[in-house]
Amino acid sequence: MAAVRGAHFVRAAERTLAVLRAFAPDRPEMTLTEVAEASGLDRAGARRLLLTLIDLGYVHHDGRQYALTPQVLEFGYAYLSSRSLPQIAEPHLRRLTGELREMTALGVLDGDDVRYVAQVPGPKLLSVSIPVGTRFPAHATSMGKVLLAAMPPEHLEARLRSMELGRITPHTITTREGLLAELARVRRQGFVISDDELEAGLRGVAAPVRGADGRVVAAVNVSLDARGATEEVVRNEVVPPLVTTAARIEADLRLKPARGA
């Protein structure tokens, strides 16, 4: 379902963001034709926007291919520095990774996706590693489920009406009824264990992080091999330190106003 656009909506801004979002880890450099195809624009429109972004310093052109410049990091830095949530969470994630020897991460809801804003890789050679800034569909991830479960019912209803519950693996929940039942379980138990929904063999365990006002602002997660331990072992050995980590981050968030006084 397409999002409703207000009378204020500026299509030029939408097209500019489409060009910027066209660049991705698997396509960091693209020709004009590739940018146009990835952004859904015609070549002439994509070219005008690319030339504007070159003038502004956000895109580089080597004569054939276009690429983003480091200047685009200004946008992410402004968000992260204004929130300071990743900086607060990182030492706690490091402590949890040291204890569990698995990758830990912090994520926030970004539209219908969960975006990684902090992560600490595990020390194992074959440990999961997901870069900061990565986005995954919220319905298929442990952190996404925690964040969706925390939404007010009326907001969640509106979100689910427009979300595409795509099947990523055979175990991904793809029905509204199934997802609502899962989110209800998350609310009851205060955490979630999600197996094989985003990637076969990957288990995600997540718990909510609440801000000073009590609202859920993020989720903290442990990613591990689903075949490495039974769900009972995960509940007994992974969930308690994960929930403790979330509580420690919350305690630091409550201290944040005093630090800025």
TrEMBL record:
Coiled-coil spans are none
* Transcription regulation found in the keyword field: yes
Which residue intervals define the domain IclR-ED in the entry? 71-255
Give yes or no: UniProt keyword DNA-binding: yes
Where the record annotates domain HTH iclR-type, the positions are 10-70
InterPro entries hit by this protein: GAF-like_dom_sf (IPR029016), HTH_MetabolicPath_Reg (IPR050707), PcaR_PcaU (IPR012794), Tscrpt_reg_IclR_C (IPR014757), Tscrpt_reg_IclR_N (IPR005471), WH-like_DNA-bd_sf (IPR036388), WH_DNA-bd_sf (IPR036390)
Q: Mind listing the UniProt keywords for this protein, alphabetically?
A: DNA-binding, Transcription, Transcription regulation
The protein's matches in PANTHER family, at most eight in alphabetical order, are given as: HELIX-TURN-HELIX TRANSCRIPTIONAL REGULATOR, ICLR FAMILY, TRANSCRIPTIONAL REGULATOR
The molecule here is called IclR family transcriptional regulator C-terminal domain-containing protein
> From which organism does this entry originate?
Saccharopolyspora erythraea
